Amino acid sequence: MNDAIRLGPQSPLQATGLPQVSVVVPTFNERDNVTVLYRRLAATLEGIPWEVVFVDDNSPDGTWEVVRGLAQQDSRVRCIRRIGRRGLSGACIEGILAASAPYAAVIDADLQHDESQLPKMVALLQSGEAELVVGSRYIEGGSADSFNKQRAGASVFATEIARRVLQVEIKDPMSGFFMIRRDLFEQLAPQLSTQGFKILLDIVATAKGKLRTVEIPYTFGSRQHGESKLDSMVALDFLGLVLAKFTGDVLSLRFLMFGMVGALGLIVHLVTLFIALEVFRAPFPEAQATGALVAMTSNFILNNFLTYRDQRLKGFAILRGLLLFYLVCSVGLFANVGVAFSVYDQEPIWWLAGAAGALMGVVWNYAMSGLFVWRKR
Ligand code: GDD
Ligand code: MN
To answer: Does residue 222's CB lie within 6 angstroms of at least one atom of ligand 1?
Structure first.
């Protein structure tokens, strides 16, 4: 043990009642579910010292208030209330890092996962048979019958892509229900993406097959209260995660999205330019300036909704953000042209110089937008 944490013989702290498992529950608008889940955890984990860490992203329905109420009656309950942030993966990571039990579980608040599997998961970790236990819908004995056709198809398709592209061995890498040795998680944590929904896939892909993993079957139930927060955007998140892991984390999910939005902006620019010239008969400089303004505005809106949706600007902050974004992009344009010129000077190949300039522009815009426009709170 490290000297800094050695307590000495007269330590007033008692090593009794320390949790063996920390259950992390991400919540967003789950007011009607958290108390039921808490009761079920207490019943199923009877005999195993446990704690539960709810990570709530300041739910408008006041989920965190309900959890606080539980925490005031039972010290095994804790609540992390995150303000100005959104995101399932980030919430899970933060919850596990706030835990101190040797094992950490992640389970949804909406009772769709089967909490009665938790003791079995603890046993598998305790025996050393596994370092990671995954609740799986896609092995014998498990099922996801409550999914509609469309969602079931998408889930199977995404699972196949993940397994082939990232060479992930497990059958259900999209599961949101698992338990892991906290010390091993702690080693992986700095490389995990806080964006998106696919925390387990990220863990498994980042560990590169080094986690001894056991899958146990469970049935994905249907939701009693509230609604799913997974929208069509998760497809984009998923694609970004696969690409980021495929490139060995050279390209981050956010940068990829920023780049995709930028590429779309080029199309918006050209279409606007064409309309201004052909329909409105505007002189070229005005038409070009209009194209740039429209493209910057649409890029800002798309980035606010996609790239930075976990830190989305709202209300008055949108206007301030937009003006800052114009400023950032204008400087980016100078950087773009400057680099393109100097490359062209050395090697007069138009496409090489153009691409170098564009790359410079997108890197600049990305770095500066992250610093000034969508600042982390
Ligand atoms: N803190 C926080 N922040 N929690 C969130 C957020 C967020 O932005 N978005 C969702 N959650 C919480 C929900 O409140 C719920 O407890 C849990 O994360 C899962 O969200 P759902 O919206 O219910 O997702 P789902 O049921 O469609 O999908 C779940 O199950 C799948 C199968 O296991 C997720 O866990 C998926 O990741 C998983 O693939
Ligand atoms: Mn759910």
So the answer is: no
